[in-house]
Predict the 3D structure of the following.
Amino acid sequence: MSTKTVPFNKTGIEKLPDDKPVVYKIETEGGRVNYAGIAGRGRVQERIAEHLNEGRISGSRVCVEQMASYDEARARERRIISRMQPKFNRVGK
């Protein structure tokens, strides 16, 4: 499916597509994944903005990958977390 990478700030987040479920990764400047998550259709920008507003997860960019369904996004998220073990994801998710 389609992917898009934008800066992890308010302006960047506003440019993200919102018409399909996504898997998103918040990455450091060096490309390390700090957090991986999913967001449903119509809630992509809002969900990622929550992380920015809370300020607990650091990062310089966010990469989203659109998926055909929420279930497909959930499965992809699990694989990313298992493989990359992001710093801010809970163990056993």
In short: The chain is about 30% helix and 25% strand.
